[in-house]
Amino acid sequence: MTDTAAPLPEPPRSTPPDPHTMASAYLDYYRDTVLRKLDGLSEAELRGSRLPSGWSPLELLWHLACVERRWFRWGFTAEPLQDPWADHDEADRWRVPGHMGVDDVVARFRAECARSREIAACAAFTDRAAIGGRFADEAQAPTLAWILFHVLQEYARHAGHLDIVRELADGATGE
Known about the structure:
Blueprint (H helix, E strand, L loop, with lengths): L18 H20 L4 H5 L9 H20 L25 H20 L22 H27 L5
Helix pairs in contact: 1-4, 1-5, 3-4, 3-5
Organism: Streptomyces pini
Pfam families: MST (PF04978)
Protein name: DinB superfamily protein
């Protein structure tokens, strides 16, 4: 699933780092971490659940693809999306559309991450989200900085969930 492991972003040495660059680098690190956690799991392990809540690793990856789509395309650029909550079903659980295979979900995840990178690269850290997508008025519209850090914390939390799932699946621990 992964091409190569992204190195952990270097800590600042003597000058303050550019926050936009640092947040984007850490987000890429966690995007890669999630794929590494899934790498080597069988399709049965990817689609099955070992947890009482019932979500599967593949559903979590689909959820993160939808998070990217919701926050950057629909949220920040106000791109009209047919179904911004495509990862939820009526029971408010993550669900992968039935027609999608593992490779389809991975490809969609990578494509959404690439699009999010493009969006973030073309905006200033202090730019506010456009009105008309996820946000109805200026008072609701967060900055790109807020969105980057929100999505980063979501990735960090879910990477931790995958640590546990992976250890339960085959004993693998660590990065």
